[in-house]
Write the structure tokens for this entry.
Amino acid sequence: MALAHAIMTALLEDDLSGYELAKDFETSLGFFWHASHQQIYLELRKLSDKRWLNKREVSQSGKPNKIVYGLTKAGRDALAEWVYSKTKTQAAKDELLIIEGEVQADDFSGGLALRAEKIFSIAEARQRFSEGVVIDTTEDKGAFSFISSANQILPKLEEEIGTMLIGSKKNVKLSAEEAYGVYDENAIQKVEKSTFPDNTTVEVGMGFVANSPDGQPMPFKVAAVEEKEVTIDFNHPLAGKDLEFNVHLVDIRNASEEEAAHGHVHGPGGHHH
């Protein structure tokens, strides 16, 4: 599943701003996957250009107005076509692999979220750079669970986990292209130091937030500071990095209708209401 499909799926239930979409990614995509604000806004722009999304301005009390995005009929049709083609392809694969759940045509007319059918629970997972430096781990956090085919972890990593048997362990190596993408030099900009508010300390490594053309926040880090100019970087912190994962799969089960509708796992390793 591409980022475009994940965004369109998130918009099946309700119209959302770019910032709200980014927050959904941060809270629901868990340990393995993150789409940066910049990636989301670029994708929103592409989808809008295709007329798969519309956008409108919403007034907010005591806050600047926000731009929210919604699926057009053409967007719903495109998403439905992708789901049907994906389901047909997956049905031919071995049953141990991740497969799509049943999808009905009315799922796209009424705004019902796509039905993902399998929940994978990981008891032990460690994420590291290719040179061996550990950058995240589930140690002391308990099992991590995700819903398959819901774009909740890196697609290539999900593909590899989908081939595992319950109780097995696996080492997965992903290139930068398979992980968070190559480092994009176009995401680096120089701005006048005066752009920052007066009396603001600006140092290398500090994080700030800029506004997108739609008026939504886009986080960046300071890459360099000169006398009159500041170099800022909108790349994902792990862009350009080859990654390695050690994974221990402890359970696979069917997602409940409620979990599939909400788009996240309930109970241990998941979300608690």
Observations:
- The radius of gyration is 20 Å.
- Residues 73-91 form the longest helix (19 residues).
